[in-house]
Design brief:
This protein is an alpha+beta fold. The chain is built from 4 helices and 20 strands. A 6-stranded mixed β-sheet has the order 1-9-8-3-4-5. The protein has a 6-stranded mixed β-sheet with strand order 14-13-17-19-11-20, with no helix packed on it. It has a 5-stranded mixed β-sheet with strand order 15-16-12-10-18, with no helix packed on it.
Amino acid sequence: MRTTMTNILVLTLALSLLIGVCDWGVASASEATPADAVDDDADSSSSSLRKRELVVGPREEEAEMITPEEQNNTEVVAQLGGTATIKCYTHFLGDEMVTWMKRDEDQLLTAGGEVYSSEARYSVAHVRHQRLWELSLRDVRTSDGGLYECQLTTHPPASLFFTLKVVEARAVVAGGPDIHVHTGVKLTLHCTVELATGPPDYIFWFHNDTMVNYSPTRPLKVVNHQFASSLTIANVTWADAGAYRCEPHLAQPANLTLHVVEGEKHAALHNGHSEGVEPESLPGAGSSSRSFTLVLLTAPCLLMLLSLSRFHKIDSNWS
């Protein structure tokens, strides 16, 4: 009888300890994901806020803090063929009228809200609540680069100077100018736009001078991003050989020649590359991993419970 009571006590203590360990393991496995999710949500929210501020630009109260020193001798970058905008804040001297000049050519452009340049490409805007005068120039040319002056009609006159730099965007196709691939492979061509001041309005792909972005007769897939585009051929055939051109809006196009040769499937030569089906993350991958971890943690607990139960039965029989 004394032996039986001792065994029951030992069994009770072992079960209590075992249940505590199991509960701790299950809690650890289940709590890991929510913590990560909170971190991911925080990072996503922070990133979204940063992107929103970049799009909207400085708030009005931040614009009020811009000093003449922060504006003077600044560089404004404009894309060839695009629109250039030069901003002159006048809050530090009151909302005085502004005269815009192209200083390196000694050319009067605007005075107040009137345009005096013979170029119809110039325009001026006065954002009164921000005390801001904006000089805009559309269809920018290389010759438009240079020194611009924002002159305030104060006594004595005060001036702020801006340098307009004109850049020409260009497209670059990875692996060009020649790519060699075998028939039957999956091929993806990647095109990126460099030196652009903003995402292009479009990026068109041409095959032998025929646009293929929306071709209903060919098994092609075009995916556009902000400053990039990809053209995917699911199954390369002889008809896919020829000249390809990536042509973004307001950018120099990029050309390459695709050479197709007969050979084993999923092979590529020289600068070309073939792509198989990339593994995709399955919707339940995270939950499956957590379930597997939970099974690993609880399996030893179940085995120990079964062993103790078996031991108890044997002890009862002996008693």
